[in-house]
Amino acid sequence: MKVAALQMVSGPDIAANLACARTLLEQAAQAGAELAALPEYFNGMGLDERDKLAHAEAFGDGPVQQFLARAARELSLWIVGGTLPLASPEADRVHNSSLAFDPDGRCVARYDKIHLFRLDNGSEQFDEARTVAAGHQPAHFDLRARDGHAWRVGLSVCYDLRFPELYRQHARAGCDLLLVPSAFTHTTGQAHWEVLLRARAIENLACVLAPAQGGLHANGRRTWGHSLAVDAWGELLAQRAEDGAGLVLAQLDAARVQSARARLPALAHRVL
Protein backbone atom coordinates (compact mmCIF):
# COMPACT_ATOMS: atom_id res chain seq x y z
CA MET A 1 0.00 0.00 0.00
CA LYS A 2 1.38 3.38 -0.95
CA VAL A 3 1.03 6.04 1.74
CA ALA A 4 1.82 9.73 1.96
CA ALA A 5 2.97 11.87 4.87
CA LEU A 6 2.14 15.51 4.15
CA GLN A 7 4.38 18.24 5.53
CA MET A 8 3.19 21.80 6.00
CA VAL A 9 4.15 25.12 7.61
CA SER A 10 0.70 26.18 8.77
CA GLY A 11 -0.01 29.76 9.78
CA PRO A 12 -3.00 31.75 11.07
CA ASP A 13 -4.77 31.92 7.66
CA ILE A 14 -7.04 28.86 7.68
CA ALA A 15 -8.13 29.27 4.06
CA ALA A 16 -4.50 29.34 2.92
CA ASN A 17 -3.69 26.30 5.04
CA LEU A 18 -6.59 24.33 3.59
CA ALA A 19 -5.60 25.32 0.06
CA CYS A 20 -2.08 24.03 0.71
CA ALA A 21 -3.47 20.81 2.23
CA ARG A 22 -5.72 20.27 -0.79
CA THR A 23 -2.79 20.68 -3.19
CA LEU A 24 -0.74 18.14 -1.25
CA LEU A 25 -3.66 15.71 -1.07
CA GLU A 26 -4.12 15.96 -4.83
CA GLN A 27 -0.43 15.27 -5.33
CA ALA A 28 -0.66 12.23 -3.06
CA ALA A 29 -3.66 10.88 -4.95
CA GLN A 30 -1.99 11.47 -8.32
CA ALA A 31 1.07 9.56 -7.07
CA GLY A 32 -1.10 6.56 -6.26
CA ALA A 33 -1.30 6.88 -2.49
CA GLU A 34 -4.22 5.13 -0.78
CA LEU A 35 -3.71 6.84 2.60
CA ALA A 36 -2.61 10.43 3.12
CA ALA A 37 -1.95 11.87 6.56
CA LEU A 38 -1.75 15.58 7.38
CA PRO A 39 0.31 17.06 10.25
CA GLU A 40 -0.81 18.25 13.66
CA TYR A 41 -2.63 21.62 13.54
CA PHE A 42 -2.66 21.45 9.74
CA ASN A 43 -5.63 23.83 9.56
CA GLY A 44 -3.98 26.57 11.57
CA MET A 45 -1.17 27.61 13.89
CA GLY A 46 -2.21 30.97 15.26
CA LEU A 47 -0.20 33.93 16.47
CA ASP A 48 -1.32 33.12 20.01
CA GLU A 49 -1.96 29.70 21.50
CA ARG A 50 -5.51 30.75 22.40
CA ASP A 51 -6.41 31.44 18.76
CA LYS A 52 -7.42 27.81 18.35
CA LEU A 53 -10.33 28.33 20.75
CA ALA A 54 -12.07 30.60 18.24
CA HIS A 55 -11.83 27.96 15.51
CA ALA A 56 -13.07 24.94 17.45
CA GLU A 57 -15.70 22.86 15.65
CA ALA A 58 -18.38 20.61 17.07
CA PHE A 59 -17.59 17.00 16.26
CA GLY A 60 -19.44 15.94 13.13
CA ASP A 61 -19.77 19.35 11.51
CA GLY A 62 -17.71 22.37 10.60
CA PRO A 63 -15.74 23.73 7.65
CA VAL A 64 -12.52 21.81 8.31
CA GLN A 65 -14.35 18.50 8.78
CA GLN A 66 -16.33 19.20 5.62
CA PHE A 67 -13.07 19.92 3.81
CA LEU A 68 -11.60 16.58 4.88
CA ALA A 69 -14.72 14.60 3.99
CA ARG A 70 -14.99 16.26 0.59
CA ALA A 71 -11.31 15.73 -0.23
CA ALA A 72 -11.49 12.05 0.77
CA ARG A 73 -14.56 11.54 -1.39
CA GLU A 74 -13.36 13.51 -4.42
CA LEU A 75 -9.85 12.04 -4.40
CA SER A 76 -10.87 8.49 -3.36
CA LEU A 77 -8.38 8.66 -0.49
CA TRP A 78 -8.23 7.55 3.09
CA ILE A 79 -7.32 10.79 4.86
CA VAL A 80 -6.21 11.33 8.43
CA GLY A 81 -6.67 14.98 9.22
CA GLY A 82 -3.60 15.55 11.34
CA THR A 83 -5.32 17.40 14.14
CA LEU A 84 -7.89 20.15 14.40
CA PRO A 85 -9.50 21.78 17.44
CA LEU A 86 -12.82 20.21 18.45
CA ALA A 87 -15.10 21.63 21.14
CA SER A 88 -14.71 20.19 24.63
CA PRO A 89 -16.98 20.48 27.69
CA GLU A 90 -14.53 23.06 29.06
CA ALA A 91 -15.25 26.48 27.57
CA ASP A 92 -11.61 27.60 27.78
CA ARG A 93 -10.14 24.44 26.24
CA VAL A 94 -10.50 22.37 23.08
CA HIS A 95 -9.60 18.82 22.19
CA ASN A 96 -6.65 18.43 19.84
CA SER A 97 -8.25 15.77 17.67
CA SER A 98 -7.19 13.51 14.82
CA LEU A 99 -9.98 12.39 12.49
CA ALA A 100 -9.85 9.59 9.91
CA PHE A 101 -12.04 9.63 6.80
CA ASP A 102 -12.63 6.78 4.35
CA PRO A 103 -12.81 7.28 0.56
CA ASP A 104 -16.58 7.76 0.81
CA GLY A 105 -16.02 10.78 3.04
CA ARG A 106 -17.21 9.09 6.24
CA CYS A 107 -15.43 9.81 9.51
CA VAL A 108 -14.39 6.36 10.76
CA ALA A 109 -12.30 7.28 13.80
CA ARG A 110 -11.62 10.10 16.22
CA TYR A 111 -8.68 10.35 18.58
CA ASP A 112 -8.25 13.14 21.13
CA LYS A 113 -4.60 13.69 22.02
CA ILE A 114 -3.92 12.16 25.43
CA HIS A 115 -0.47 13.47 26.37
CA LEU A 116 -0.16 17.27 26.43
CA PHE A 117 3.19 18.85 25.64
CA ARG A 118 5.05 21.03 28.11
CA LEU A 119 8.58 22.37 27.73
CA ASP A 120 10.59 25.09 29.43
CA ASN A 121 14.24 25.13 28.44
CA GLY A 122 14.83 28.77 29.33
CA SER A 123 14.38 30.11 25.81
CA GLU A 124 11.21 28.23 24.81
CA GLN A 125 8.09 27.72 26.89
CA PHE A 126 5.11 25.57 25.89
CA ASP A 127 2.21 24.30 27.96
CA GLU A 128 -0.49 22.71 25.83
CA ALA A 129 -2.73 22.07 28.84
CA ARG A 130 -3.51 25.79 29.03
CA THR A 131 -5.74 25.51 25.96
CA VAL A 132 -6.20 21.76 25.33
CA ALA A 133 -8.29 19.22 27.22
CA ALA A 134 -6.63 15.82 27.26
CA GLY A 135 -8.26 12.78 25.70
CA HIS A 136 -8.46 9.46 27.53
CA GLN A 137 -8.96 6.64 25.04
CA PRO A 138 -6.76 5.13 22.31
CA ALA A 139 -8.39 4.85 18.90
CA HIS A 140 -7.76 2.88 15.73
CA PHE A 141 -9.53 2.04 12.49
CA ASP A 142 -9.42 -0.68 9.85
CA LEU A 143 -8.39 0.12 6.29
CA ARG A 144 -8.78 -2.40 3.47
CA ALA A 145 -6.16 -1.66 0.84
CA ARG A 146 -6.69 -2.09 -2.88
CA ASP A 147 -4.70 -5.35 -2.77
CA GLY A 148 -7.21 -6.75 -0.26
CA HIS A 149 -5.01 -6.59 2.84
CA ALA A 150 -6.72 -5.21 5.94
CA TRP A 151 -4.49 -2.80 7.85
CA ARG A 152 -5.34 -1.83 11.41
CA VAL A 153 -4.21 1.75 11.93
CA GLY A 154 -3.46 3.16 15.38
CA LEU A 155 -3.83 6.90 15.98
CA SER A 156 -1.56 9.11 18.06
CA VAL A 157 -0.33 12.72 18.03
CA CYS A 158 3.08 14.32 18.48
CA TYR A 159 3.99 14.28 22.21
CA ASP A 160 2.29 10.88 22.55
CA LEU A 161 5.43 9.56 20.87
CA ARG A 162 7.29 9.72 24.19
CA PHE A 163 4.86 7.34 25.88
CA PRO A 164 5.40 3.80 24.54
CA GLU A 165 2.55 2.35 26.58
CA LEU A 166 0.05 3.93 24.17
CA TYR A 167 1.66 2.19 21.20
CA ARG A 168 1.81 -1.10 23.08
CA GLN A 169 -1.96 -0.85 23.51
CA HIS A 170 -2.21 -0.38 19.76
CA ALA A 171 -0.05 -3.46 19.20
CA ARG A 172 -2.24 -5.48 21.56
CA ALA A 173 -5.25 -4.36 19.53
CA GLY A 174 -3.60 -5.72 16.37
CA CYS A 175 -2.41 -2.47 14.80
CA ASP A 176 0.25 -2.88 12.13
CA LEU A 177 0.45 0.79 11.11
CA LEU A 178 0.92 3.67 13.57
CA LEU A 179 0.27 7.30 12.64
CA VAL A 180 2.03 10.18 14.40
CA PRO A 181 0.96 13.59 12.99
CA SER A 182 3.17 16.12 14.73
CA ALA A 183 4.41 19.65 15.21
CA PHE A 184 7.67 18.83 17.00
CA THR A 185 9.74 21.84 17.99
CA HIS A 186 13.05 22.19 16.17
CA THR A 187 14.88 21.69 19.48
CA THR A 188 13.21 18.43 20.49
CA GLY A 189 12.89 17.18 16.93
CA GLN A 190 16.58 17.55 16.21
CA ALA A 191 17.37 15.57 19.35
CA HIS A 192 14.73 12.84 19.39
CA TRP A 193 12.33 12.73 16.41
CA GLU A 194 13.75 9.95 14.25
CA VAL A 195 15.03 7.76 17.07
CA LEU A 196 11.66 7.78 18.86
CA LEU A 197 9.72 6.97 15.69
CA ARG A 198 12.03 4.11 14.79
CA ALA A 199 11.84 2.80 18.36
CA ARG A 200 8.03 2.72 18.27
CA ALA A 201 8.22 0.79 14.99
CA ILE A 202 10.81 -1.69 16.24
CA GLU A 203 9.27 -2.47 19.62
CA ASN A 204 5.79 -2.96 18.14
CA LEU A 205 6.88 -4.54 14.84
CA ALA A 206 4.61 -2.05 13.07
CA CYS A 207 5.01 0.50 10.29
CA VAL A 208 5.04 4.16 11.30
CA LEU A 209 3.93 7.16 9.23
CA ALA A 210 4.74 10.59 10.68
CA PRO A 211 3.60 13.77 8.86
CA ALA A 212 4.95 16.93 10.46
CA GLN A 213 4.95 20.67 10.52
CA GLY A 214 8.33 21.78 9.23
CA GLY A 215 9.63 25.32 9.06
CA LEU A 216 9.37 28.82 10.52
CA HIS A 217 5.78 29.80 11.36
CA ALA A 218 4.20 33.26 11.50
CA ASN A 219 4.10 33.08 15.30
CA GLY A 220 7.89 32.70 15.42
CA ARG A 221 7.83 29.01 16.28
CA ARG A 222 10.19 26.76 14.34
CA THR A 223 9.15 23.16 13.81
CA TRP A 224 11.43 20.28 12.92
CA GLY A 225 9.66 18.70 9.95
CA HIS A 226 11.50 15.64 8.57
CA SER A 227 8.20 13.86 7.85
CA LEU A 228 8.96 10.18 7.41
CA ALA A 229 7.88 6.58 7.02
CA VAL A 230 9.44 3.60 8.81
CA ASP A 231 8.83 -0.10 8.26
CA ALA A 232 8.19 -2.74 10.92
CA TRP A 233 11.89 -3.61 11.18
CA GLY A 234 12.77 0.00 11.92
CA GLU A 235 14.12 0.72 8.45
CA LEU A 236 13.68 4.30 7.27
CA LEU A 237 11.67 4.07 4.05
CA ALA A 238 11.46 7.76 3.17
CA GLN A 239 12.08 11.13 4.82
CA ARG A 240 11.76 14.76 3.80
CA ALA A 241 15.08 16.48 4.41
CA GLU A 242 14.09 20.09 3.77
CA ASP A 243 11.73 22.54 5.44
CA GLY A 244 8.51 23.63 3.77
CA ALA A 245 5.40 22.05 2.36
CA GLY A 246 5.73 18.79 0.50
CA LEU A 247 5.01 15.10 0.78
CA VAL A 248 6.83 11.87 1.52
CA LEU A 249 5.69 8.74 -0.31
CA ALA A 250 6.39 5.21 0.84
CA GLN A 251 5.31 1.73 -0.12
CA LEU A 252 4.25 -0.34 2.88
CA ASP A 253 4.56 -4.11 2.57
CA ALA A 254 2.10 -6.13 4.66
CA ALA A 255 4.04 -9.32 3.98
CA ARG A 256 7.19 -7.72 5.41
CA VAL A 257 5.29 -6.82 8.60
CA GLN A 258 4.06 -10.39 8.94
CA SER A 259 7.54 -11.76 8.23
CA ALA A 260 9.12 -9.52 10.87
CA ARG A 261 6.58 -10.64 13.46
CA ALA A 262 7.14 -14.30 12.55
CA ARG A 263 10.96 -14.07 12.65
CA LEU A 264 11.01 -12.21 15.96
CA PRO A 265 7.73 -12.88 17.82
CA ALA A 266 8.49 -10.33 20.53
CA LEU A 267 4.85 -9.30 20.82
CA ALA A 268 4.04 -12.85 21.93
CA HIS A 269 6.82 -12.74 24.54
CA ARG A 270 5.34 -9.90 26.58
CA VAL A 271 5.35 -10.52 30.31
CA LEU A 272 4.23 -7.19 31.79
Automatic annotation (TrEMBL):
Give the PROSITE patterns listed for this entry: CN_HYDROLASE, UPF0012
InterPro entries registered for this protein in UniProt: C-N_Hydrolase, C-N_Hydrolase_sf, Nit1/2_C-N_Hydrolase, UPF0012_CS
Keyword annotations from UniProtKB, A to Z: Hydrolase
Query: Which superkingdom, per the lineage?
Result: Bacteria
Write down the SUPFAM superfamilies for this protein, in alphabetical order: Carbon-nitrogen hydrolase (SSF56317)
Name the family: Belongs to the carbon-nitrogen hydrolase superfamily. NIT1/NIT2 family.
Q: What is this protein called?
A: Nitrilase
